[in-house]
Amino acid sequence: MSGDDDRDCLGRLRDMQREAAEPGGLRRLLARFADEVCGSAALFDAAGKPIASAPDRTPPAAVVDTARRVRLGEHRSVVERDGHDQVAAFAISGEPDAPTLALAGSAIDRFTSEPRRTDSLRVLALTWKAQHAHERSMLVEAANDQVREAVLHLLMDGGLATAHRTAEALGDALPDPMRVWVVEVGAIDKGERDAIADELIRITDGRAWMIKCPVYSGHLIPAVAPTSHEEEQACLRELVAKANADIGRISAGISAVLPLRDFPTGYQQAFHALAHARGNTERFATFRRSHDLAAELAGRGQDWARRVLAPLEEFEPARPQDPSRDDLRSTLMSWLAFHQQATRHLKIHRNTLSGRLHKIGSLLGRDLHRLPDQAQLDLALRLHGGPEAPRSPRDIDELLRGEEVRRWAEVLIAPLRDSPRLVETVQAWLLADARTSLAAESLGISGAAVRKRLVSAEQLLERSLLNSPSLSYDLHFAFRALDLTTGARVRD
């Protein structure tokens, strides 16, 4: 071989290596081979399924048949004529599962000459191995994410023992006690969210058990083993600074330290803290105001809750294909927490969600699209399962008339008291079933103005209003309880 030929081969090899390293390297190489033979190129897997081709179309029957003969081990390579063109097929390596390259064109000799063929097949084999390894890695990562999402569902549904066993199968024990973080990544690009997840695990020295939120695509939900306040603040500052430098603004809400069994409470606390974090300079916030109506009612609301939920708890499906009691209960919980996003949380079609909500509403005699009914069902679920009380309230109003509930309501609403306009807006929004457009109509202002006021209320209350899980249920009860003590008329 002459010096010019050597330089040509080296130049072609460098070009192939550069193309192989770029995105879509496998298709780029096939396109190069197709150009060289003045025809087409296709790569078949060990089962004979096309992996890629150039041009991007179904390979001709002659090409498929020639590749099959090589794949079945009849020959290591085949070169034959098909009309005016030649057809060739080659095993790209000696490995049993290696793909087969098939070519068709009028200039096959350009490819089959040595060392061009050897160089081409070697680069193609390495590119395929890299892509195959990447695809397998992506499958493993996706499976890991699905298992972690399953652990999230178990924690939210109270399946603590199963959650522990599932997490241990990944070799990554759940922290107990823990803080729940909700980290909101401004960009929803999967790679950027994954980069923030990796960074969070690094700066917490592996104390974060990471879950990618199935409802909000830009959210991460790590359960983090608690540490000192100073260390935690340092981690948060480093995370925000790193994200701002590399990706863009992020926000983080953090729950109080809780036992793992209280993960649902921790999630709601962190979600509320996130609403406050969006509006402060540090871009992170810890949940501080622990006003829990269910805790105030402990010991005297459980029997009311059981009566409210009894038709659902006693439900038995008439047909095997009908949703079970557990299906309906989990659907109700997801709807109350996430509303229309429940389809993403439960991985069901919107028509399935609608059908289940209609069934639940019929069983319980409630309109699941109205805020007062939603609030009562949410409270009943929070109270359900506690011990019997000696005397149980007959209805929700009797339950809310207690002095302890009035104090709870005053404390909850206190941050809004210096802004009558915000109080008016929040009340109008609640009366409109948390629908911004209806609240705007009743107030005679624009929907944008209502949203702006509600964002201001979020900052004062340090809770989420516009995004679910929302404080709307507790605010409904707080205003209702205060109205009851003054004898005002409350809408049911």
UniProtKB/TrEMBL annotation:
It holds the Pfam family HTH_30. InterPro entries: CdaR-like_regulators, PucR_C-HTH_dom, PucR_C-HTH_sf. Residues 329-383, 422-481 form the PucR C-terminal helix-turn-helix domain. It comes from the Bacteria. Signal peptide: none annotated. This is PucR family transcriptional regulator.
